[in-house]
Amino acid sequence: MQYHGQHVALHPTRGVVAHGVELDAVVAEVRASGLPLDDIVLDFISDSPF
Amino acid sequence: MNSRHGIAHPFTETAVSGFGALVQPLVHVQLRADPSRDWSLQIRALVDTGASITLIQRPYLRELGLDPERLGPPQSFASATGAATCHAARVDLRIGRRRQPDGPILSQRTVYFTDANLPVPILLGQRGVLDSLQLVHNNCGSSPSFRLNMP
């Protein structure tokens, strides 16, 4: 794996609601949170911006 | 179809140390392996008009329930930052937010999963994705936006 950064789950009002190196763990945390999944967007915060 | 048809996506502004404010055409995308599966969570994607193909971070394979054994053979590609390897697969894409169900749907398009260090989870490239959509780019004025519509 060559990724340099973290996967994040974003909520429009709460901001970052889960983050981590492994996408699976981030998605599992979001699904366990009880937040409406329609509001969540998965993103990646790279160590280099572009 | 006029240039105001469809959903207007605002440009996303991000403050980056050393570079100031970056303004990018980012959009929400949902993926599924085929119509028998549910759509994924929303995933951030960059409208990358300079890219020939659509690239997706490899960990999303598992989110889609795609079997890595059924991917295409490894293929090399060159990006602005160097060479890397990717594998082809066919997926459905829905452009736009989940609460905007009238966003364009592209069925069984070839995309490429990669371990390369992408700046966002998905780079939407030309072949099979952007070349199937009408992109209206309006980055002038006080509320710059873009639209991705079915032609």
From TrEMBL, chain A:
Identify the domain of life: Bacteria
What this protein is called in its record is Uncharacterized protein
- Organism of origin: Nannocystis pusilla
Ranked from the top, the taxonomy reads: Bacteria, Pseudomonadati, Myxococcota, Polyangia, Nannocystales
From TrEMBL, chain B:
Q: Does the keyword Protease apply?
A: yes
Q: What keywords tag this UniProt record?
A: Hydrolase, Protease
**Keyword Cell inner membrane assigned:** no
- Entry-linked SUPFAM superfamilies: Acid proteases
GO BP terms in the entry: proteolysis
GO MF annotation list: aspartic-type endopeptidase activity
Check the record and name the PROSITE patterns matching this protein: ASP_PROTEASE
Q: Which InterPro entries match?
A: Aspartic_peptidase_AS, Peptidase_aspartic_dom_sf
- Name assigned to this protein: Retropepsin-like aspartic protease
Q: Which organism is it from?
A: Nannocystis pusilla
Q: What is the lineage of its organism?
A: Bacteria, Pseudomonadati, Myxococcota, Polyangia, Nannocystales
